[in-house]
Amino acid sequence: MTGKPILDCAARTRIAEAVSRAEAATSGEIVVLVAARAGSYRSAPLAFALVCGLLVPWPLILLTPWSAVSIALGQAVVVLAALAASLHPRLRMVLVPRAIRRARAHEAARREFCSRGLARTPERTGVLIFLACAEGHAEIVADSGIAARVPSAAWNASIGTLLGALRRGEMEAGLIAAVADVGAILAAELPERGGGPDLLPNRVIVVD
């Protein structure tokens, strides 16, 4: 992603401080990861251009006196225009069905959970707060030590708060609120036992 960063340094620092505050009351480990998008969706522009290419000749055949060569040229122009237009990230995202976007974001959350070491804490107490901005998808992934005590539905309010803030353009505030909510749930089920090491980084992970 180019241009303005997803979160500037000051915002990342404030979110990391919120993680530190939340973890002070629990033996759980919270990691925040923000991704610009969960996938590249490279097939979407090709599919869009293919559909346009298949549909365009018919009205030209029925409604114009154009020759076959002219229709073929018009078809080629439309296909190229569709490809060029669909290369824009926002339009490309519109072309991808919502179910596919959600599935891709869900897969990305699970993949990041494993690749960032959250599944390797001694008591399996890692929690990932995952946000895919382009998809508008948030997910909280908890390791088995927490999932055994906290039902997945317990995270729904935190996810709703985060997504509402994202739609309002208040990502930082939403992430801080989600961290506080998750920390409160963890503190109730897994209170801090004193003196344990901070096993996972509190800094916000941003994937452009």
Give the gist of this structure.
It is built from nine helices and four strands; from the N terminus they run αβαααααββαααβ. It is of the alpha/beta class and 208 residues long.
What characteristics describe this protein?
208 residues, alpha/beta, Diaminopimelate Epimerase, Chain A, domain 1, four-stranded mixed sheet, 9 helices
Task: Describe the structure in your own words.
The structure is a single chain. It is built from 9 helices and 4 strands; from the N terminus they run H-E-H-H-H-H-H-E-E-H-H-H-E. It has 208 residues and is an alpha/beta fold. The chain folds into 2 domains: 9-39 and 97-207, Diaminopimelate Epimerase, Chain A, domain 1 (Roll), CATH 3.10.310; 43-95, no CATH class. A 4-stranded mixed beta sheet has the order 3-2-1-4, sandwiched between helices. Strand 2 (126-132) and strand 3 (137-142) form a beta hairpin. Helix 2 (43-55) runs antiparallel to helix 4 and helix 8 runs antiparallel to helix 9. The longest helix has 19 residues, at 68-86. The termini are close together.
